[in-house]
Amino acid sequence: MRRLDGSAVGFESALADLEVPTESGERGGSDVTSTVAGIISDVLSRGDAALLEYTQRFDQLDAASLAELEVSRDELESALHDLPETQRAALSEAASRIEVFHRNQLGEDWSFDDGLGNRLGQRVTPLERVGVYVPGGKASYPSSVLMNAIPARVAGVSEIVMVAPTPDGERNPLVLAAAALAGVDRLFCVGGAQAVAALAYGTTGIPRVDKIVGPGNRFVAEAKRQVFGKVGIDMIAGPSEILIIADGSADPEWMAMDLFSQAEHDESAQALMLCPDSDYIDAVDAAVDRLLPQMERSAIIEASLARRGALIKTRDISHAAEISNRLAPEHLELAVADPEALLPLIEAAGAIFMGIHSCEALGDYCAGPNHVLPTSGSARFFSPLGVYDFQKRSSIIHCSSEGAAPLARIAKVLAEGESLTAHARSAAMRIAD
Amino acid sequence: MRRLDGSAVGFESALADLEVPTESGERGGSDVTSTVAGIISDVLSRGDAALLEYTQRFDQLDAASLAELEVSRDELESALHDLPETQRAALSEAASRIEVFHRNQLGEDWSFDDGLGNRLGQRVTPLERVGVYVPGGKASYPSSVLMNAIPARVAGVSEIVMVAPTPDGERNPLVLAAAALAGVDRLFCVGGAQAVAALAYGTTGIPRVDKIVGPGNRFVAEAKRQVFGKVGIDMIAGPSEILIIADGSADPEWMAMDLFSQAEHDESAQALMLCPDSDYIDAVDAAVDRLLPQMERSAIIEASLARRGALIKTRDISHAAEISNRLAPEHLELAVADPEALLPLIEAAGAIFMGIHSCEALGDYCAGPNHVLPTSGSARFFSPLGVYDFQKRSSIIHCSSEGAAPLARIAKVLAEGESLTAHARSAAMRIAD
């Protein structure tokens, strides 16, 4: 694997070279942007007819109506029922652990009296209807269904509408089973920017939702960006990343396999290991070479490591934490003997895996926390997907007749300072009650 | 004012006619989109030089360097010191009430043991650096500085960078004073899409931030949309709105003035009152006619009411709640004798003002809750700006050697089901410890 020295001159630019080039669609003006804008306009003006045409064109799937593209509750339940017992048990156990974890995120109403007789607070209620996008084809993952739909269910969302393209009409039974387990209410076999447009604006066949979550290709991501504001969206997801800070406590093969588990996603995934010990880096590098040929997805892993991977020598562990903080990785493994001692040095990361037994794969499937995490450094400001994404807050302001007066006096002065005299008079009316 | 009957045929479309037409910039392809994309590219490639040029062009303000456009901490403190005592006291009292309210929103770390010896939880930390956009000219409001910066300060953000255009170099002393009170760390007299670009990407003179909040014109809104993902943003703000549900408990003049307080913002602001009592609607309508000529901003109020305002007769109070829920208004006044009884019928609103003494103006300035609220129906999925917008969460997964094994068995089955065999092996390595 590529070796870098974190203390060397030129390290910053070597690291920058491993970043994914900015998507040209990211800031408007590109082909993706205008293609997606065209699809959205088309779905807005022609509704279901446009959806059916795009589904025919992109998924080679003929349907005369949206109803033909809807998967019935019975089919979902049958898919779950028909799974091999081992798979059904694993999926159910994962679903239950995800649910238990996410229950801790439920927001609650609160209020207090301000001492003047006014009650102030915040009310927390679930979103009414939510859309979950699940990619089709190779990237169609049942775990992703659980991670996106269960927090919505825990939040108390009334209706979860899932969309998933089914190229050539092929439905993935594991995905259907996961939808049944996660409590998805309706599932339509449509995808792409057209599915996002339908969820955002509503068509005859597909109901309008309040928020759209779930991963997708760059057309889906761009569509989500374009409808943002009309509906809520989760975040703009980039390629997946792992950053391991290692002190040599773990078997080098574990580190190699953890890097592979990220790299196997796709060729733009990033796998980095930071370590102060050159001998250990050598050992991990040797393990990578030894294990790589055994991997089923070795071509993807090799390409990903060649393009974006690196083993980085640091001065010490805190230097590793410093570099990690600059990158704000999606997944951060603290593969060290004393992860609790290292944690206070960490400023930003989507999920932090503490100690050598906490590998990313456990978090991806079943530890309980969400696997939808901020990528590309956005852990500086985004959080993991959670129940809080499916609840909304409203402020509550309840003034008494005595309590309103002192507030009105303040508001009047400030409103006059802003030349908003109707504000001032509206407030003043509550003084001379 | 316009009168509508909520039970009449054609009510829906009459109501829809009062909506603001979709901004053409909203979904790409328009002039605003490409102008903004050009400005952002320019700031990205030429940095401070581009910023200075745009500031010269748009604000008629010559400066040789960004340093000349920075307002010193001394100037901020002097502005606060020099305010008339009444204004300084009102601003301080408002700041203190806003702070007290927002402290209730502080998120906290939590974790639990899953019964297998694994510790799972969530860590909550402040964003490092945040940008606050404050519009210039007529819409330059000190209250907006308090509402945007104080939650960031409460969250524990290390550095708050404020930007505000100063057309012709005119600095608003109330805005500077509010910045001092709110604990703004640095203030630059730049605005527009160029200021947003500088905050998102960083230039020599302006540091890169993690999130940009604050209102602005459509160029600013579009710029925020375009940089979303590189940095966090608050929300896409549309024109301000009030919806009053009235049962006749309040003096009709109070209702008229509350409608005016929204309408005076600008001509696209919306003021609606819903009421089951025709006589009371008549009385409010008469009060509107009587009071309007007395208002300083009567021309704006009149235009706003003519374009988007309405008094709507409903069958009963719950019918009014139903219509309100469809609109999900930014500000909702429950001007009724028993607001607690009505509240359970309300599904979505940015801020809910309970009872006739709780007018919007009190919330705009000093009740304590934030006045940055979701507009244009986005209260269906957005929340008021809050401390939670300036904190980020990280998942914590700490597996013990015994606790990892049962998780690894589940993960292995699911990973194999998704053909992600490196995931499966990475997990399996934690079984045979």
Automatic annotation (TrEMBL), chains A, B:
Pfam families: Histidinol_dh. It is an enzyme of class 1 (oxidoreductase). It catalyses: L-histidinol + 2 NAD(+) + H2O = L-histidine + 2 NADH + 3 H(+). Coiled coil: none annotated. InterPro entries: Ald_DH/histidinol_DH (IPR016161), Histidinol_DH_CS (IPR001692), Histidinol_DH_monofunct (IPR022695), Hstdl_DH (IPR012131). The active site is at residues 330-331. One of its GO terms (molecular function) is histidinol dehydrogenase activity. Transmembrane segments: none annotated. Zn(2+) binds at residues 262, 265, 364, 423. Binds 1 zinc ion per subunit. Keywords: Amino-acid biosynthesis, Histidine biosynthesis, Metal-binding, NAD, Oxidoreductase, Zinc. Pathway: Amino-acid biosynthesis; L-histidine biosynthesis; L-histidine from 5-phospho-alpha-D-ribose 1-diphosphate: step 9/9. Its EC number is 1.1.1.23. NCBIfam families: hisD. Belongs to the histidinol dehydrogenase family. HAMAP family: HisD (MF_01024). This is Histidinol dehydrogenase. It comes from Congregibacter brevis. The lineage of its organism: Bacteria, Pseudomonadati, Pseudomonadota, Gammaproteobacteria, Cellvibrionales.
